[in-house]
Amino acid sequence: MYDYLIVGAGLFGSVFAHEATKKGKKCLVIDKRDHVGGNVYCENVDGINVHKYGAHIFHTNDKDIWDYVNQFAEFNNYVNSPVSISKGKLYNLPFNMNTFYQLWGTKTPEEAKTIIESQIKEFGYKNPKNLEEQALSLIGKDVYETLIKEYTEKQWGKKATELPAFIIKRLPVRYTFNNNYFNDAYQGIPIGGYNKIIDGLLKGIDIKTNVDFFKEKDTLSSLAKKIVFTGKIDEFYNYEYGNLEYRSLRFENTKLETENYQGNAVVNYNDSNVPYTRIIEHKHFEFGKQKHTVITKEFSEQWTTEKEAYYPINNDENQKKYQEYKALSLQESDVIFGGRLAEYKYYDMHQIIASALQKTKKEFNESV
Ligand code: FDA
């Protein structure tokens, strides 16, 4: 008899399994995919780690979480500095002094600030009612129209005027020449890929892949005293209150016999006439020196139940449904819900690790 059946071998399930095993508990980890790692899984294509479910850059301000992941893999000093192509011109991201120079030729923070503030005054709204009004109120017309509008419309498949304002809560603006996308103290890519971290977490633990919990629910549940469930909470309750909605992605991978396709790991494509939102060139995450390269075009797509669920659509309707599912989950004594799908929430990797560590702590304080 196992102490825990862990449904989902993503970061949440793997951290929980690792910590529970350290406490002497016996775990069985299952996943419906043919591999462990969940969305951080990397596929090795001729020596290049391809981020199969989208580009993953580890970043955190939390020293404890940084030390935690460094137990399993060393990290390189990759710094995410994406660029964006708009109407044939390249711009640095996030919005900083380089971007403003490329847009207006401004050379000092004072000059850039004057333009942004005057555009906010002219085009902004006191009570923004949609994403467009919100963005105009936060950053003004030029940055919005050059680097936000069409990209965001592709991402969500809707006009910016039809999207809710809350999607953009703030738009970080930097008046320094700093292209480092994240503000965090620690950042990098695990040397050898994310699989190394997952393999380290799951070392010595029983694993079964290609196993869908819902296809053998009773048999699997009978194997353990408790279940840790990291799949979709609405599926767990048989969609009793309806589907929780997501935005999906499609990835088109191409191996090219060229050493360096775009000179950067992440290049965004802002224009609406380009169907994908960005191209990832994976070798640059690890400073690869191969003679070939692998690129991924990322397309944003409408989600249907057969597709991978990527980004929760956090509108009132879905939140209401989620709260109903959550209320059901709180009545369970032998099922622990955690991770992005069970909590219907976008989490970065460092946040999911923190959340899994917290849940394990809670579990063991209570039961030990
Ligand atoms: P995850 O989805 O990884 O794992 C859940 C697992 O459960 C899956 O393997 C699934 O197959 C399995 N499962 C579900 N139902 C099941 C069932 N019925 N039976 C068996 N198994 C089942 N974060 C960051 O810090 N930096 C970044 O750059 C990025 N980039 C990024 C890009 C994109 C496109 C996305 C969507 C997300 C990111 N993230 C990120 C976030 C990161 O992916 C996320 O924090 C973790 O992968 C979440 O781990 P979980 O374990 O919660 O879910």
TrEMBL record:
<comment type="similarity">
    <text>Belongs to the UDP-galactopyranose/dTDP-fucopyranose mutase family.</text>
</comment>
<keyword id="KW-0413">Isomerase</keyword>
<dbReference type="Pfam" id="PF13450">
    <property type="entry name" value="NAD_binding_8"/>
</dbReference>
<keyword id="KW-0285">Flavoprotein</keyword>
<dbReference type="GO" id="GO:0008767">
    <property type="term" value="F:UDP-galactopyranose mutase activity"/>
</dbReference>
<feature type="domain" description="UDP-galactopyranose mutase C-terminal">
    <location>
        <begin position="147"/>
        <end position="346"/>
    </location>
</feature>
<keyword id="KW-0274">FAD</keyword>
<dbReference type="Pfam" id="PF03275">
    <property type="entry name" value="GLF"/>
</dbReference>
<dbReference type="InterPro" id="IPR004379">
    <property type="entry name" value="UDP-GALP_mutase"/>
</dbReference>
<dbReference type="InterPro" id="IPR015899">
    <property type="entry name" value="UDP-GalPyranose_mutase_C"/>
</dbReference>
<protein>
    <submittedName>
        <fullName>UDP-galactopyranose mutase</fullName>
        <ecNumber>5.4.99.9</ecNumber>
    </submittedName>
</protein>
